[in-house]
Design a protein that fits this description.
Chain A is an alpha/beta fold. Chain A is built from 3 helices and 7 strands, in the order E-E-E-H-E-E-H-H-E-E. By secondary structure, chain B is an alpha+beta fold. The chains are: A alpha/beta, B alpha+beta.
Chain lengths: ~150, ~150
């Protein structure tokens, strides 16, 4: 079994502050900087891509974890916020990624407290095993809202 | 309190308790109290728990189950794998760690202490003991297993 894998994207300048992005997995789209960095609204940006990469990866890892932890997932929605810091030398860094997942699971025939504890362990595993979360140097904060449906 | 042999492979630190014996799969065997009562406690090594990831469930056969040496006595499910557990000695399971029901993560947190799996009343100890590794023997085997894994990267 190979222990490495590679992924690629290709970007091409299309004029002014615009580019075209081709993802290795198929999708293509224009991109630009965000409005706060001399860019445009309503277009894919590197900043969104960074936050989205972490958000999507943690969600998918959590879905995997719910299967391994035998949780009956009813819904999952997560707003993730990346905080950019502009340093004294004008370099920029994402210092923090704050995840706020809202998770609903069914208790089934188990105690809600037991199920909630398992959801928290699944979330911790999702963060631990998320390729992207594991690859960034930003502080990662996860503040879940967990609803265990006992009906 | 157990003492440990310790090694670092890549960025990972693996410990092997020096007060017990091991099979090659990384199941440890520790006498409970004294040799006379014939009971051994079994569990998983630090290397096995780290290598297989966060434990999600532990399924150990119930007390009263008779086992031949090498027979499956349970399995653990982790975030990444399902691992069959094979009895290091023949005997009868007399106790299963009840804490594993609600907190199987103790296998990850304290593999040599609170994360034990079961107590077995050994029925063929002298013969089975000859098949087990002492701490230094398992330490060398574990280190070579870890280094072999590393070579595949």
């Amino acid at each position: 079994m190979s222990r490495t894998a590679t992924y690629h994207t290709t970007v091409r300048w299309t004029g002014e502050h615009w580019g075209h992005l081709a993802m290795g997995n198929g999708p293509e789209m224009p991109f630009a900087p965000p409005p706060d960095a001399q860019g445009h609204a309503n277009v894919f940006t590197p900043e969104d891509a960074f936050v989205a990469a972490a958000n999507t990866c943690v969600m998918l890892m959590f879905i995997w974890a719910t299967e391994r932890f035998k949780l009956k997932l009813l819904s999952y929605e997560c707003r993730t916020e990346g905080t950019k810091l502009i340093k004294l030398d004008r370099t920029e860094i994402f210092t923090r990624l704050q995840f706020r997942p809202v998770i609903r699971v069914a208790a089934g025939d188990e105690s809600p407290a037991v199920v909630e504890a398992r959801v928290r362990r699944a979330l911790a595993s999702a963060q631990k095993y998320s390729l992207v979360a594991n690859s960034v140097k930003s502080e990662i904060v996860v503040e879940p809202e967990i609803v265990v449906d006992v009906r | 309190m157990a003492e440990y042999l310790e090694t670092t492979v890549d960025k990972f630190i693996f410990r092997v308790a020096t007060d017990r014996l091991y099979n090659a799969e990384g199941v440890w065997v520790l006498w409970v109290e004294s040799h006379e009562n014939g009971r051994v406690r079994v569990g998983l090594t630090d290397y096995v728990q780290q290598h297989n990831g966060d434990v999600t469930f532990a399924h150990i056969k119930p007390a009263g189950t008779s086992l031949a040496a090498g027979e499956e006595f349970g399995e653990i499910e982790t975030i990444k794998a399902t691992v069959s557990l094979h009895a290091p000695v023949a005997g009868e399971i007399v106790e299963v760690n009840a804490a594993l029901d609600l907190s199987p993560e103790i296998i990850n947190q304290e593999p040599y202490e609170k994360g034990w799996l079961a107590v077995i009343r050994a029925t063929n100890w002298e013969a089975d003991r000859a098949q087990l590794l002492d701490p230094q023997g398992y330490f060398s085997l574990m280190r070579s297993q870890a280094e072999e894994e590393l070579k595949q990267l």
